[in-house]
């Protein structure tokens, strides 16, 4: 049963952001977890299933508890659901249950895992890849993320406004001819190395920049965590790349937002 690696690392990635912010909160409720950045961008005010769910009343309870939490704080929020936590018959009804409680499906993502990477299918470009600390690298990471994930830049900047977030959210920016073109971030936790924020600026896509930055970030992570599996959640755009790199789908993540 590998899907908890995806679910637990995903939750850890939000905890890293939440604990870096003065207004952030991390809480464990009955069968549900909260990792909230207290931000305008609702996707970073997150709830998660923390245990298996077999009945509809159980699922309703695990929706209502985070809902009360976020409503009392006046925050829009999102439920990141690893559907493998749910019994199969409940999984088929789950979208309707979430919608009945004011949460609407935003996206569905395959959760993927690889024990090791396959070699590149073609030579990758040479990039100057820099670890994000603050200043220009932080601004470049935020700019690329805002454009590629279609998020207002002020929202993205608010989430990553704390210097402490960069201690455990190991982010990298790839530069080509001095211009920032790609990003990747790494989060350790839940028994896995999680890969996040893989993005390339629109005009520079399909040139291998994203893969080069991602492979560099993974190599850095392997220096301290050489044996933990690699996990990520893929967008439709990135799926074929990750499959070529050796990732296989082991879970399904549905994201519902208020």
Kindly describe this structure.
With 258 residues, this protein is an alpha+beta fold. The protein has 2 domains: 3-111, 3-Layer(aba) Sandwich (Aminopeptidase); 128-250, Gcn5-related N-acetyltransferase (GNAT) (Aminopeptidase, 3-Layer(aba) Sandwich), CATH 3.40.630. It has helices at 3-19, 56-73, 88-100, 135-148, 153-159, 165-168, 209-222, 239-245; strands spanning 25-28, 32-36, 45-49, 78-82, 104-114, 128-131, 170-176, 179-189, 192-200, 230-233, 248-257. The chain has an 11-stranded mixed sheet, sandwiched between helices. Helix 2 (56-73) links the parallel strand 3 and strand 4 (78-82). Helix 2 (56-73) runs parallel beside helix 3. The longest helix has 18 residues, at 56-73. The protein is globular and about 55 Å long. The mean pLDDT is 96.
Fraction in beta strands: 25-35%
Helix percentage range: 25-40%
Biggest β-sheet description = 11 strands, mixed
List the helices and strands in order: HEEEHEHEEHHHEEEHEHE
Low-confidence stretches: none
- CATH topology value of the largest domain: Aminopeptidase
Number of strand segments: 11
Number of structural units classed as domains: 2
Write out the strand line-up for the largest beta sheet, numbering strands in chain order.
1-2-3-4-11-5-10-9-8-7-6
CATH uppermost class of the largest domain: Alpha Beta
The CATH homologous superfamily of the largest domain is named Gcn5-related N-acetyltransferase (GNAT)
Structural class: alpha+beta
Distance between the termini: 30 Å
Please give the count of helices.
8
Shape: globular
Q: Tell me which CATH architecture of the largest domain applies here.
A: 3-Layer(aba) Sandwich
Average of per-residue pLDDT values: 96
Overall radius of gyration: 18 Å
């Amino acid at each position: 049963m590998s899907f908890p690696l995806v679910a637990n690392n995903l939750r850890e990635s939000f905890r890293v952001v939440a604990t870096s912010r003065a207004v952030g909160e991390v809480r464990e409720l009955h069968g549900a977890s909260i990792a909230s950045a207290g931000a305008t961008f609702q996707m970073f005010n997150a709830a998660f299933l923390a245990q298996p769910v077999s009945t509809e009343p159980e699922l309703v309870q695990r929706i209502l508890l985070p809902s009360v939490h976020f409503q009392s704080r006046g925050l829009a929020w999102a439920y990141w659901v690893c559907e493998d936590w749910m019994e199969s018959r409940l999984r088929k009804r789950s979208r309707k249950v979430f919608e009945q409680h004011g949460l609407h499906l935003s996206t569905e993502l395959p959760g993927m895992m690889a024990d090791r990477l396959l070699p590149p299918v073609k030579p990758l470009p040479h990039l100057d890849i820099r670890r994000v600390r603050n200043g220009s690298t932080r601004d470049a990471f935020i700019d690329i993320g805002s454009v590629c994930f279609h998020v207002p830049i002020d929202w993205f900047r608010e989430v990553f406004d704390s210097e402490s977030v960069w201690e455990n959210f190991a982010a990298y920016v790839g530069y080509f001819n001095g211009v920032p073109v790609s990003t990747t971030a790494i989060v350790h936790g839940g028994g896995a190395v999680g890969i996040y924020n893989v993005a390339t600026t629109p005009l520079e896509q399909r040139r291998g920049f994203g893969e080069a930055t991602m492979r560099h970030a993974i190599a850095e992570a392997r220096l301290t965590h050489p044996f933990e599996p690699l996990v990520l959640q893929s967008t439709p755009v990135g799926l074929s790349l990750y499959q070529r790199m050796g990732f296989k789908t082991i879970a399904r993540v549905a994201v519902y937002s208020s």
